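#lab-general

N.A. 3:47 PM
ok so I finally got the sequence cleaned up, no stray characters, all 175 residues accounted for. can someone with queue access submit it? mine expired

B.Y. 3:52 PM
send it over

N.A. 3:53 PM
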Amino acid sequence: MRSSTRIRLIEPTDAAAIAAHRVRDVEAFRPWEPAQPATFFTPEGQAERIDNLLAAHRAGTVWPGVVLAGDQVIGQVTIGGILPQPHLRRGSVGYWIAGVAQNQGHAGHAVGLALRVMTEELGLHRAEASTNLENIPSQRVLRRNGFSPYGIAHSSIFLDGSWRDGMLWERILGD
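B.Y. 4:20 PM
back already:
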């Protein structure tokens, strides 16, 4: 794991760096993420997206973070769908790492740090995630962080022109 990898809450000033990564990596992410409008790839579009994420954070439903290598934004890690009710207490982890920083351990370390936020800061009991069936690198990141697969969501996401199945993952926090 990369000891220089950190995560922190996303900030409006992260918009330009995120947009630059997303423009450069658009083809690499096409098989794994839904199509986005052209504005998604602009600093202005990312600034609007960050504003929405921070509003959801204030409402308690999302913890939107950036992944840093040193002081450089190299990706995002987001805890979404937060259900803090005593009988639920769960959230779903999603992440991406820019192509220039992949295969260096950043994703695994960032997910581990997000699990710590889920446990220590958000008081959650259960972490969930999903991956495309073919996304073996992301599945390795989840396995290394103690997640186990528990099912398949058939035709659950429209990616690259067709409906795709997703593999569902879970981890009980504190174990």
